[in-house]
Amino acid sequence: MSKQILVTGGTGFIGSHTVVELQKNGYDVVIVDNLSNSKIEVLEQIKEISGVQPKFEEFDLTDKQKVNDFFKKYTNLEAIIHFAASKAVGESVEKPLMYYNNNLNSLMNIMSCMIDYKVPNLVFSSSCTVYGQPDKLPVTEKTPRKEAESPYGNTKSICEDIIRDTINAYPELKGIALRYFNPIGAHETAKIGELPLGVPNNLIPFLTQTVAGIRSELSVFGNDYNTPDGSAIRDYIHVVDLAKAHVVAIERLLNNKNKANCEYFNVGTGNGVSVLEIIESFERATGEKVPHKIVARRAGDIEQIYADTTFANEELGWKAESTLDETLLSAWKWQEHIGK
């Protein structure tokens, strides 16, 4: 019998791509999602790609009773990948209580049930925001965490602490926190991709919607940072490369290859790319022009961050493979697919 994995937030951007990769590798996937930032149609698109429609339960993970009922129903779970979270930096500055309530309570409800129902393995969707603005680049897994620049970033740090402390108290549990850098792009079939509801908070969907004529122009937040071209620098990773890292992390836990009960890995490319370089790369890859303007810096944004991926590459045997041009072209094909 194939191993059953719970994927929370599995109809979302990263979640849906990870479900596809899990199913391609023979896992039996159950998705829990409240559809607050995704659409039910994604299930059909996952089926079109992988040939399998995952099981699906729609509810909010902050509802403790519903989480408990779920675990009572699904008694064969062997691992959980926890994506479900509010994730917009700017919005978190405006609505901190919403972020703390959603991101912390959902995790605590899940971990309570992991203990009660003896589900030992957790892969957590963490973030490079836990490093704040690092003193030294690139960041390694040993780079000290800093006070977060936003409530969103702070929830990721607190969630990491909750996982660590709970695993210390319950040694039968094991966890891996994958600290993502900036996931972008879409599946090569253009059947799934990043589909924010309303005005996008992330750079790439706003960029592709601008080129498609949905938005009038892209705002570049700041050109006065201490970077070569003045715009902020990030480490942009293809979402499929990121999804594959989750499969590797799950296999590491299920096969007891982990070297500590709680492990941390940077999941990025190791390359820092500025916002203006993203625009340049997109135009080169697609032949389309990106209307844009420079505006003031945005609250909660840091100047620059990119990963040292040596530890993840060597320890997990995983590496990001897609080039930036390929990744941005996939994002544009997805935008063309969903229409103008």
Automatic annotation (TrEMBL):
It catalyses: UDP-alpha-D-glucose = UDP-alpha-D-galactose. The keyword Isomerase applies. Residues 6-327 form the NAD(P)-binding domain. One of its GO terms (molecular function) is UDP-glucose 4-epimerase activity. The keyword NAD applies. GO terms for biological process: galactose metabolic process. One of its GO terms (cellular component) is cytosol. Its cofactor is NAD(+). InterPro entries: NAD(P)-bd_dom (IPR016040), NAD(P)-bd_dom_sf (IPR036291), UDP_G4E (IPR005886). Keywords: Carbohydrate metabolism, Isomerase, NAD. Pathway: Carbohydrate metabolism; galactose metabolism. Its EC number is 5.1.3.2. Homodimer. Belongs to the NAD(P)-dependent epimerase/dehydratase family. This is UDP-glucose 4-epimerase. It comes from Ancylomarina euxinus. The gene is galE.
